[in-house]
Amino acid sequence: MPSFESFGRILMGFGVLLLLVGAAFAFGGRFLHLGRLPGDIIIRRGSFTFYFPLVTSIVVSVVLSLILGVVLRLMGRR
After folding, report:
1. 71 CB burial (10 A radius; 0-12, 13-18, 19+)
2. How wide is the angle at C-alpha 59 spanned by C-alphas 40 and 68, nearest 5°?
3. Which of 3, 37, 60, 69 could in theory staple to 55 by disulfide, Cβ–Cβ 3.0 to 4.6 A?
């Protein structure tokens, strides 16, 4: 059973994560070009547009995996 101390650390970690995600949404459009990377598939036919962010999905997955690995290592669960 986790103690209140570890629960508090988990909540603070989620708070930091939310802060980073919020900052990425607020300022990321100026610096990051996610969603418009080479390798993302865009098909336009008349009024129909199909968009599949293939490379963006891979980049986001790798970055989140690295962040999760670091967080788990710092928490001592690995």
Report:
1. middle
2. 155
3. 37
Placement of tokens 């100026």 in the chain? 30
Nearest to 17 by CA among 77, 67, 73: 67
pLDDT of residue 48: 95
Give the residue among 47, 51, 20 at the shortest CA–CA distance from 37: 51
Per DSSP, helices labelled H in 1-78 are 4-31, 54-75
Where are the domains positioned within the chain? 1-32, 33-78
Distance from C-alpha of 18 to C-alpha of 12, rounded to nearest angstrom = 10
CA–CA distance, 16 with 10 (Å, rounded to integer)? 10
Tokens in use for 73?
Answer: 């290592």
Q: Are 23 and 15 in contact (CB under 8 A)?
A: no
